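Deliverable D4.2, example record:
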Amino acid sequence: MTTPGISEKIRKAHLGKKLSEETKRKISEANKGRKFTEEHKTKLSEVRKKRVTTYKTRRKCSKTSKGKINIKKFGAKIDGTAVDDQSWINKKNRKMKDCIIQSILDEDLYKMTMQQAVIKLYPRSKVKYEFINRGNTEFPEGFDVKLREEVRYMELLNLKEEEANFLTEKCGDFLDPTYIDFLKGYRYNSSEVGITQDEGSLKITIQGYWYRTILWEVPLMAVVSELYFKMTGKYLEKEDRKVLQQRNIEKGKLAHFNNLKIADFGTRRRESFENHDLVISDLVNCFNSKNFLVGTSNVYFAMKYNLKPIGTHAHEFISGIAATKGYYHANKHMMDDWISVYQGNLGIALTDTFGLDAFLDDFNIKYAKLFDGVRHDSGDPIEFADRIVNHYHSLGIDSKSKTIVFSDGLNMEKVIEIHKYCIDKIKCSFGIGTHLTNDVGLKPLNIVIKLVSIDNKHAIKLSDIPGKHTGDRDTIDLVKKMIGYENRIKVIENV
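Output generated by the structure prediction step:
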């Protein structure tokens, strides 16, 4: 033991001196296994409390601590397993390669085209989205915890230079340089997403400015789907890779030999990112793929496989505008907005947000000529084709110069049937979703995320299939009466 006086002399003698690496090693070895008394620990604690660290020291400590987890503080395991909502630790501790969403471009193009339109036309509007579990799927215990974890890691995503260059090259005709520059600075904000679970029931809400929250839906649904199969262990039951590959090739052959034009629309309800990648790879490498594979809605895979990214707008765009500007002539309001932003580009109009009849009432010769075609997403496709063809003829327009994009729950058998019917009537192409990216021998989830309000006004959707209506029931009933929806449906059913 040394006296305080001697200790002070030793301290002053060592001021400014640097220890050699050898000396440091010897001191370290000497201290190994050394145990301090409780009195000694108390003294050390008191000294540390009074210590004032320099900026230089704090920087060194910060660099040393990067990537390390304070287990005591956060109650988390070193393997990064999340225990509850309080276990969110250093985001960069977990490598992004372990996350489901790897790129900000793992997104459907129509979300970006709508985002650009919303930024220009509705920059102050605030919205709310809700998760709808149509298939009444029971989610496993702890699903909400894992989902929140994935959502938080999405905050790390940003638009890379090569991704920005791709958007400029492939989408520069309709995506402004200012929008691409905006996307470079865009970051997901997990506070916009609320996730709770009551036993097997999952609740998800998304709230915030429309221009920000609009990008959540597609990747979030993809995460829910993939996470479900992983956590339930069902992914282990999917069919062998060779079987799946052969099935994908057979789909490519059917498309080729039947002169079909197909596109991948399967991001939202895919079995996994990996399978999505393999499906696109199989189709691209199939013989004569350029003859039948016209592109993909997924921007990341469009970049990876040098495909055309495909997409215009979704139901939410029309629902939001209708709630803002009125339900009378809602489709007209939407088409006017779309034309004001895109000036004739991206000319495929979605038809069924408030039923086909309401759409055709607004689809006059002006819009019929300005838009390249329409998209079918509900109701009988054959009947739809007839009505669209007849509508074009009634306006004096050659239907063969126009296109229908079919996208409602398609498989190859349906596609071939519709294609054969439309020959010599109208051009057609097909956006195939679940049947491509989740055709693995498992039952896909039947889930959606829908816009339910904008600026505190109810936003609804009236499908051509009554079971697909979404939104506030009173508002749905009111709008039905307003546009004569029920009477028109009865007429159609009696034909």
